[in-house]
Amino acid sequence: MINTKPSHITILGFGSLLSERSSRTTFPALENFRLGRVINHRRVFCHPASIFFQRNIAKLDTLEISSLSVEYKEGYSMICSVFEVPNEGLAVDTAGVDSFVPSQKFLEREEEFEITKVDYEELSSSGKQEIKQGIICRRSTDEAYIERWGQTRFKQNYLDYGIKTIWGWDESGIRPCPVYLRHCVLAATNCGELCYNSFLDDTYLVDRFTTIRDYLKEHPEIMETEPPANLKERYGG
Q1: Residues 71-121: pLDDT tens digits?
Q2: According to a count of CB atoms within 10 Å of the terminal CB, is the N or C end of the chain lower?
Q3: Do residues 64 and 175 lie in contact, with contact meaning Cβ atoms separated by under 8 Å?
Q4: Which of 226, 218, 229 shows the shortest CA–CA distance to 175?
Q5: How far is the C-alpha of 189 from the C-alpha of 54, rounded, in Å?
Q6: Which three-class secondary structure state does DSSP give residue 56?
């Protein structure tokens, strides 16, 4: 079941939502912010986010334009944030307790992703493994985006910024948006050593080989790349 009670939904965060402050900006009524482990998924910087261009923090000339997603990959896992939110228009009411169909409101908020439920492990001090299910934003396809939102929206949010694909960057050398990466690292740091080390070692560049720990060793200047003044709180960890 994905609900701790029928009126609530369990959310799994892997990037900005590692920050409780950022999570509360998106979900002001969230409850029980904690850590868990997503099973059989890999965290990857592999797609551009339109919002980075809208906020003028993307660096297209160096391909530092990527946001985070997760993708199914057996044998991989990662530490995530876990919290419950009231189901205030996030799920289609007729979906039922044991299934999840995102509402239009939720789809608008996370437009480029597949919003789905996945297995995660509650981290227990007793050492007992408890597997549950929560909602996560997973890698999708260009075709799914255009089918849902139409070619006009794809043009406005991507083509007009010189971006010809959302999910077709696997051989491109796309790199993390520096302001966003710094924000995620700070958020993971604030969640403690376990989360911090997982973010560095269980998060990959688009090559699915280079870890963020190795990338930051090569580019330490990223952690000095502060956001614009109007975005300091939004991207401050």
Answers
A1: 999 999 999 999 998 887 666 554 444 566 666 667 777 889 998 999 999
A2: N
A3: yes
A4: 218
A5: 27
A6: coil
